[in-house]
Specification:
It comes from Deinococcus psychrotolerans. One of its GO terms (molecular function) is 1,4-dihydroxy-2-naphthoyl-CoA thioesterase activity. Pfam families: 4HBT. This is PaaI family thioesterase. By secondary structure, the protein is an alpha+beta fold. The chain is built from 2 helices and 7 strands; from the N terminus they run αβββαββββ. Strands 1, 2, 3, 4, 5, 6 and 7 form a 7-stranded antiparallel β-sheet that branches. A hairpin with a 2-residue loop joins strand 2 and strand 3. The chain starts with 9 loop residues before the first helix and ends in a 9-residue tail after the last strand.
Length: 141
């Protein structure tokens, strides 16, 4: 996706993410971007927590994806988010940086932060993902 060879997921368009460029994807680390807009707001006048969570979950999952061979997938088992600062219109672009902590045969863990333009931490998150490896030929259910 970062090279433009595959279509980006629709969630990026829906929520207004700027998907990673090739330079934003490294072995075990991925960065996503978002400029807070009014359509992201909750009733109290700041970006809805679900937007933070979706941005963080994207960075977390994709950083784990960089450590997996072709044909191996993953799914989120848990996502823990800590909201530290509000995201608001006019603050400029923020970035979510996901970094792998560990990948084993069955489970991967990662951590991420949303950072504002000054590098202040606005939110943190951790995840545990189940690794989905294809079944061996002839293996029983």
């Amino acid at each position: 996706m970062a090279r433009g060879e595959y279509a980006p997921p629709p969630i990026g368009d829906t929520l207004g993410f700027r998907l990673p460029r090739e330079a934003d994807v490294q072995d075990g680390q991925v960065t996503f971007y978002l400029t807070p807009e009014e359509f992201h707001y909750n009733p109290i006048g700041s970006v809805h927590g679900g937007v933070y969570a979706a941005l963080l979950d994207s960075a977390l999952g994709c950083c784990i994806h960089t450590k997996l061979p072709a044909g191996v997938g993953y799914t989120t088992l848990d996502l823990a988010v800590k909201y530290l600062r509000p995201l608001k219109v006019g603050m400029g672009e923020v970035r979510a940086v996901g970094k792998v902590i560990s990948v084993s045969q069955r489970v991967a863990t990662a951590e991420a932060q949303i950072l504002d333009a000054a590098g202040k931490v606005c939110a943190t998150a951790t995840t545990t993902c189940l690794i989905l490896r294809p079944a061996a030929k002839g293996a029983n259910g």
